[in-house]
Amino acid sequence: MSQRVTIGDVAKQAGVSVTTVSRIINGHYEKMRPATRERVEAVIDQLHFAPTASAQRLRQDQGHVIGVLVGDIANHFSSLLAKGIDDVLKQAGYDILLVNTNNDQATEKRALQRLYQQQVDGLIIQPDARYFQQFAGMVKHKVPLVIVDREIDDLPSDVTAITSANRDACFRLGKHLAERDYQNILAISAHFADASGQIPRLAGLAAAATEYGLTFRNLETRGHDRRWLADNFSHELAQLSGRTAVISLMGPVLFDLLAICQQHHLTFPDDFGLISFDDWEWSQFVGHGIYLLKQDMELMGNLAAQRLLQQIEQRRLDGSTTLLPVEAVDRPSL
């Protein structure tokens, strides 16, 4: 059996350092003479060198790899968030290690430990844990860190966070409903993570209901099936007098609501007003269109990546909180 060609063999024959070879195989040619690059690439072809993962990560001081933790990669939000992050980091010469925590804090904790051991250059986290103790070790070890999408109750002032203005958007929505002569708000939620983005949304709706004299109810669907939701949804509607606005606080809940409407021959806005908190363009084609509270998750990912790169370049943590606006798209379902 022939001996495997190593990155050291390439460096020796090309007359350069191992670090130079590593930078070339990873596509980082900054401050490198074209002749050097051509010489090394010729040796790589001549020796039929296939770099290992460890060779690809070898650098003077950075691996050019960012760890990205998302709560549920199957969720449309998380996928768009990861895409927004990758679009920026790829342009800057970084790769991402994407980890799906499945909205589980134990999985999240293990993932953080693994990524720290792999010496990633920074972390972008859509958190499952609601309190910062889960992530404190990263700050202690000065790992650049950005929290995205979901809010942490006790976030330190030196940690960057980028999320949507969920509470304010829902408070404004409550005011808008009162102005349109709705008397009731019935929210449908599904808290799959402790740090769910639905928490500030519910807080905003509850505050608006108190301020403008509306009745506010919430049905939490986690742990229940569609039949349970159908029974309880019908019961709540029957108990509420006056006009009711039903608000789906996350995309997957909307599918259940639409199925219940079809099964029980309910229509909107005749039987109730319907609002969805998602950014799926197909909602405009349901009925005459569903009133939408729309987040820009790709933009959130872009900004998170940019802030992380700033921390890496400046070699220090930079605490700031950015609240991105939530767009209200007025459609006939209300």
TrEMBL record:
<dbReference type="InterPro" id="IPR046335">
    <property type="entry name" value="LacI/GalR-like_sensor"/>
</dbReference>
<dbReference type="Pfam" id="PF13377">
    <property type="entry name" value="Peripla_BP_3"/>
</dbReference>
<feature type="domain" description="HTH lacI-type">
    <location>
        <begin position="5"/>
        <end position="60"/>
    </location>
</feature>
<dbReference type="InterPro" id="IPR028082">
    <property type="entry name" value="Peripla_BP_I"/>
</dbReference>
<dbReference type="Pfam" id="PF00356">
    <property type="entry name" value="LacI"/>
</dbReference>
<keyword id="KW-0804">Transcription</keyword>
<dbReference type="GO" id="GO:0000976">
    <property type="term" value="F:transcription cis-regulatory region binding"/>
</dbReference>
<protein>
    <submittedName>
        <fullName>Transcriptional regulator, LacI family</fullName>
    </submittedName>
</protein>
<keyword id="KW-0238">DNA-binding</keyword>
<dbReference type="InterPro" id="IPR000843">
    <property type="entry name" value="HTH_LacI"/>
</dbReference>
<dbReference type="InterPro" id="IPR010982">
    <property type="entry name" value="Lambda_DNA-bd_dom_sf"/>
</dbReference>
<keyword id="KW-0805">Transcription regulation</keyword>
<dbReference type="GO" id="GO:0003700">
    <property type="term" value="F:DNA-binding transcription factor activity"/>
</dbReference>
